[in-house]
Amino acid sequence: MDLTQLGWNAAREDQFAPHRAKGLVPARVAVEDKHYYRVWTADAELIAQVTGKIIHEARGNHSKLPKVGDWVAVKIPANEEKATIHAVLPRMTQITRKNSGRDTTAQVLATNLETIFLIHAADISFNAARLERMLVMAHDSGARPVVVLNKIDVCDDLDALLAEAQRLAADAPVFPVCAITGRGVKKLAAEIKPGDTVAFIGISGVGKSSLINRLYGDELMPTIEVREQDAKGRHTTTWREMIFLPKGGVVIDTPGMREFHLWDLAGPGTRETFPEIEALALNCHFRDCTHTQEKDCAVLTELNAGKIPRDRYESFVKLQRELAYLREAGKRAGWQSRRKSDRVAHRSFNKAVTHHKSRR
Ligand SMILES: Nc1nc2c(ncn2[C@@H]2O[C@H](COP(=O)(O)OP(=O)(O)OP(=O)(O)O)[C@@H](O)[C@H]2O)c(=O)[nH]1
Ligand SMILES: [Mg+2]
Ligand SMILES: [Zn+2]
């Protein structure tokens, strides 16, 4: 296969030069399992393992190990089955989420993505707050978010749900689809350009694998067989896997998560999810204003004047609270470096906003 179809380009070829000089070849991680990786080179699909050096250098930080979507430098020994991964190329984008429970280490879901499909079902499982959280994750990833409303065949009032989803999604497009009948799937497929990589993210059962099967045009990924009162025989996705579409483009199927937690500790994502409220917050009297009770709070003033919808305000405050909690948890874990880079990001954002304002 031509590696450019998998997203290889001149910039990556440049980055790869030192590895090439050592006789290593470029490959992309398609599957990550507990004990091995499946990688694609231009010529073959190989089973690969990381070198001890990579494990040592990661020092227990799992996010530094190869993840699905990563470009890696592999050595293919003659007469030996397994290839070895000697280096991970810098990631262009990556989507991360907080691990469940009290563990506040980040989990990398997929890397080097152009686009992220945030899959939701147009049924009772639809949840506005979850969509907002997923949008924050997506904005922070560096990839372009696309909201997908699947299962429109079971929705009674699609117009209302679409309007709600579009309002929450702000600038991100929303695509109504049905994986069963194929309605809307062609339009969605047009969002996947040749050479692009798209990750499918969403809670279990929303139809991520079903949609990928539709896009592939064949039964490829096992999907859940929904049975009443019976969880047996479920074919739920248990690992992340990259699939090359026949018409070009790479998709990454991910296992559904039970819930989305925010990993980001005040990264730029929140601002893109609530841009109008963040812009207001810059005018609050107190720099650490929580926008709940403070005097001279610009957000509360606008809220009381009816200029911000109350539910949107409430989601915003809830998100701020969750971020504050994570920040505290991070502090307790002695998590300095990330917070420092956050402060830098925060400053440059404020500068950008101020600059924008002064030009108006
Ligand atoms: N009515 C309806 N059912 C759908 C649609 N898409 C998927 N389903 C059903 O929803 C169930 C779950 O689909 P999957 O594709 O396995 O869901 P998933 O998101 O991959 O789930 P995980 O792998 O657990 O994360 C299956 O029974 C599908 O047949 C749709 O558009 N309409
Ligand atoms: Mg699945
Ligand atoms: Zn305020």
Features:
single chain, 360 residues, alpha/beta, OB fold (Dihydrolipoamide Acetyltransferase, E2P), Rossmann fold, Ribonucleotide Reductase Protein R1, domain 1, 3 domains, 6-stranded mixed beta sheet, 5-stranded mixed β-barrel, 11 helices, 19% strand, disordered C terminus, binds guanosine-5'-triphosphate, binds magnesium ion, binds zinc ion
Describe this entry's structure for a reader.
With 360 residues, the chain is α/β, with parallel strands linked by helices. It has three domains: 3-88, Nucleic acid-binding proteins (OB fold (Dihydrolipoamide Acetyltransferase, E2P)); 94-253, P-loop containing nucleotide triphosphate hydrolases (Rossmann fold), CATH 3.40.50; 269-359, Ribonucleotide Reductase Protein R1, domain 1 (Orthogonal Bundle), CATH 1.10.40. It contains eleven helices and 13 strands. The protein has a six-stranded mixed beta sheet with strand order 10-9-8-11-13-12, with helices on both faces. Strands 1-2-3-5-4 form a five-stranded mixed barrel. α3 (128-141) runs parallel beside α4. It is globular and about 75 Å long. It binds guanosine-5'-triphosphate, magnesium ion (MG) and zinc ion. Residues 208-209, 236-237, 253 line the site of magnesium ion (MG).
Bound molecules: guanosine-5'-triphosphate, magnesium ion, zinc ion
Spans where pLDDT lies below 50 across 5 or more residues: 224-234, 259-268, 333-360
User: What letter string, H or E per element, gives the SSE order?
Assistant: HEEEHEEEEEHEHEHEHEEHHHHH
Q: Sketch the major β-sheet.
A: 6 strands, mixed
- Distance N terminus to C terminus? 51 Å
Cα-atom radius of gyration? 22 Å
Helix count equals 11
Kindly identify the CATH topology of the largest domain.
Rossmann fold
For the largest sheet, list the strands in their spatial order: 10-9-8-11-13-12
**Count of β-strands:** 13
* Averaged pLDDT: 80
CATH superfamily membership of the largest domain, which one? P-loop containing nucleotide triphosphate hydrolases
The appropriate CATH architecture of the largest domain is 3-Layer(aba) Sandwich
Query: Looking at the structure, what is the overall shape?
Result: globular
Overall number of domains: 3
CATH class of the largest domain: Alpha Beta
Strand fraction: 15-25%
Derived from helix and strand composition plus strand pairing, the structural class reads: alpha/beta
Helix share, percent: 25-40%
